[in-house]
Amino acid sequence: MGSFGKTLCIRMTKINAGLFVLLTIFLFFFRYTHAKNGEEKNVSKVKRSFWLIRNRCNIWTGLRARRCLYKEKYRKDTYKACGWWWRKRCKTGTTYFWKYKWRTCHKRCPVNGGWTGWSRWGTWGGCHGSSCVGQQKRLRTRSCTHPRQRNGGRHCRGSSFEWMSRSCRPVHSKVNGSWGSWGQWRAHGACSNTCGKGRRLFIRQRTCTRPAPKCGGRRCPGPTTQNKYKSCFLKKCVVDGGWGAWQTWGDYKTCSKTCGTGTKVRHRVRYCDNPSPSNGGAKCQGKDRESDDSVCNVHGCPRDGKWSAWGQWGHFRHCSETCGHGVRYRYRYRECNDPEPENGGKKCPGSLKDEEFKRCFLAKCPKMRIKLISKTDKIMSDLNSTKTETSPVITGDSVNLQNQTSI
């Protein structure tokens, strides 16, 4: 290889070395920039967290976070290329300098104490007391550690323990009761009656005090008092009479009438023997005999019939003769119903029918040799001949006949 080849090789070596140096510088610069950006990010996070917890006292550590300025010492080394083809780095010198930075620092702060929760209740203790009712106690506690008092803070207020008590009965205090002796008989109240025989109450008592029941002991069995009655007499009683019960009714007497509506009577009595008057007492007031009337009717009484009032007159009939003098008549009627005859009574006397006659004249009859008896004259002659059967009443030109026989 000639000189040209040697020269080219040397130049290529120098170019490679230069490229290597440039690549190294680029990598160093990139790493330095990236590290600086990451440090700035961390610083910004610290700043934010600092401002969030600023002036807050940590109750568990007793420290308050703050922002403090401090200086940090740095060292800077200088190098240069050396060796064959500047392939080595040789240290030329070292310099020192200071940088000021912010960081979080802590300062003590006072923390007030806080109570923990109450513990579970302990077991009941023994029953203490000299009377029938004693007391048992049990305990629970708490501590001033939530949080603990630090740096001059206030201590927990209140008690760190608490007692619970309940009543109990000591075993040795139970005593059963027993009766004492009976007392004397004593009168209780006055005699039951103010006169005559009566009763008076006497009472005696005893007490359950030998000994008395104590602390739930059994009470004395049986009553505390006994009663008895004694007879007493003050004076004879004035007894007023009182009526006894009514006796049974007697039989009815004979009816007061033999026919029609009558009455029959029965009686009952009572006696003044409930009680009988004694020692100047008053007699019974009122009647001792009582009557009871009842309607009786053996059979209806005979009743005679009576006429009712006459009815209206009817119209007059035609004249009995066609010429000469004649008679016109009319009728009226009545009934035997005011009242009707009953139970064999008599019927109404007289006739049901009443007649009234009136003379009439239509025209003159023609003259004849033989004198004929008119029908009117014949009727009039009959009336005169039978006076016992009819009685004529003539007023003006009318004749009223009342027949006494029934039609």
TrEMBL record:
Pfam families xref list: TSP_1 (PF00090)
Domain of life of the native organism: Eukaryota
Keywords: Disulfide bond, Repeat
SUPFAM superfamilies in the cross-refs: TSP-1 type 1 repeat (SSF82895)
Region described as Disordered: 385-407
PANTHER family in the cross-refs: PROPERDIN, SEMA DOMAIN-CONTAINING PROTEIN
Listed name of the protein: Hemicentin-1
Species of origin: Magallana gigas (Pacific oyster)
